[in-house]
Amino acid sequence: MTRAKLSWSDLAGAKVGIWGLGREGHANLRKLASLGVEPILVDDHPQADPDGRPVLATSEGGLAALEQCDVVVKTPGLSRYRPEVARLSGLGIPVVGGLGLWLAEADLRRVLAVTGTKGKSTTSSVTGHLLTELGYRCMVGGNIGASPYDPAEDSGSGDFDYWVIEVSSYQATDLPYSPPVVAVTSLHPDHLDWHGGVEQYYRDKLSACSQPGAELTVANADSDLLTERVALLGPRVEWVSADDDPGADWMEPLGLPGRHNRRNALIARRCLVAMGVPGAADDARLRAAAAGYQPLPSRLTSIGTVSGVTFVDDSLSTNVLPTLAALDSFPGRRIALIVGGHDRGIGYAPLAAGIVARPAPTYVLTLPNSGPRIRAEIDQAALDQAARNQEPDQAPLFAGVTDRRDLESAVAAAYRWAKPDGVVLLSPAAPSFGQFRDYRDRGEAFARAMRAIS
């Protein structure tokens, strides 16, 4: 895929279209305003602009307006594989992303790009915290937060020592450059509707490892999908496993549960060492820097206990991989797992196999819309396990699966089963679209349901 090698500075004086006015689209608008550019605004579902500027619908004159532009700055949520993008590109109009425009003129030696299906937000936030506590000015942004070029965030001033940028698979398709060090935390099928297929998703997700400027990829050695695709990981790879450095205790003050989070912390450190950050190789300094870390919300976050039952919000787990990791984070504990949400068509057989094989009591409650498909996979996995069981008199640890109509009823039923000392775990393995605004809204609904019980 050819990416236009343009920077924000190149857009001064150009006729620019902004396509998509979500969070990053508004950052793009503010950046162009700082350059003195008044862009054409287009959105698939336009809302009234607070400043009264006209916003065209893509299908009602918007595409025709974009065809008259010199450059179109696209929001990441709009798939690069849409026919409208092909039409614009065919007319010779570059379709670019804001993050790529920023990277084109950034000091890449001071930028770390973090990508991966899951784990990238935690790894980014841990890296940023360590850099800050080691005494450096650091911005953590990209998919996790502010755009590094947004004037409203005062983040485009260059007044930082380092930038840690979380890169989604959507954003990766817009990057013409990569920093020398890129981290890849995991790989698993995701966003197949946007990318058009699983192998294209893998190629897009990992493309940040091999753009011009890339030198080293720090990658998850525990992922078979990654080790099988080493050819996509750029010129040089350093592998990191959750079992590395078994005696190291510097990450204990981070307070992050699970082997996967231990690996995320080790990846963060390996990246800092690779970037030549002073103090990153010193265990004592790093342990001191790790103190005070605040875990991100809705990522294996314990939100309360009711009559001995622990409630854990893992709402950001929108894929099979992190939900399996969440189950592994409570070894030996009795878990009532709440799963399901927007159905993106990903396969749930690996999740089902992991649930029925879990060596501790596990009960599953599924939610619309993907819930019935998840239940069918779990039922089949339970039948397969029963057929293989050589000790039929042994009581199964898997306690069953039921569909629930909404989150509130699922939480109540999960609590009844988890008593007296189990865990109610919201780890949906699916996005929240449709029923909730986003994963935060879903997590807040989970907390309200817990409070209703208490």
Put the structure in a nutshell.
This protein has 454 residues and is an alpha/beta fold. It contains 16 helices and 17 strands. It has a six-stranded parallel sheet, covered by helices on one side. Strands 12-13-17-14-15-16 form a six-stranded mixed sheet, with helices on both faces. It has a five-stranded parallel sheet with strand order 3-2-1-4-5.
Fold and architecture overview:
This protein is of the alpha/beta class and 454 residues long. It is built from 16 helices and 17 strands. The strands form 3 sheets. The protein has a 6-stranded parallel beta sheet, with helices on one face. Strand 4 (71-74), helix 3 (83-90) and strand 5 form a beta-alpha-beta unit. It is globular and about 70 Å long. The mean pLDDT is 93.
Q: Determine the mean pLDDT.
A: 93
Shape: globular
Number of helices: 16
Could you estimate the helical fraction of the residues in percent? 25-40%
Kindly report the spatial arrangement of strands forming the biggest sheet: 7-8-6-9-10-11
Low-confidence stretches: none
**Quantity of strands, as a count:** 17
For the biggest sheet, the summary is: 6 strands, parallel
Q: Estimate what percentage of residues fall within beta strands.
A: 15-25%
Whole-Å distance between the termini?
A: 54 Å
What is this structure's SSE topology?
Blueprint: E1 16-19, H1 23-34, E2 40-43, E3 55-57, H2 58-66, E4 71-74, H3 83-90, E5 95-96, H4 98-103, E6 111-115, H5 120-133, E7 138-142, E8 162-166, H6 169-172, E9 181-184, H7 192-195, H8 198-206, E10 216-220, H9 224-227, E11 237-240, H10 259-274, H11 283-290, E12 301-306, E13 309-313, H12 320-328, E14 335-339, H13 349-356, E15 362-366, H14 371-388, E16 398-403, H15 407-418, E17 423-426, H16 439-453
Parallel strand pairs: 1-2, 1-4, 2-3, 4-5, 6-8, 6-9, 7-8, 9-10, 10-11, 13-17, 14-15, 14-17, 15-16
Antiparallel strand pairs: 12-13
Helix pairs in contact: 5-10, 5-11, 12-13, 13-14, 15-16
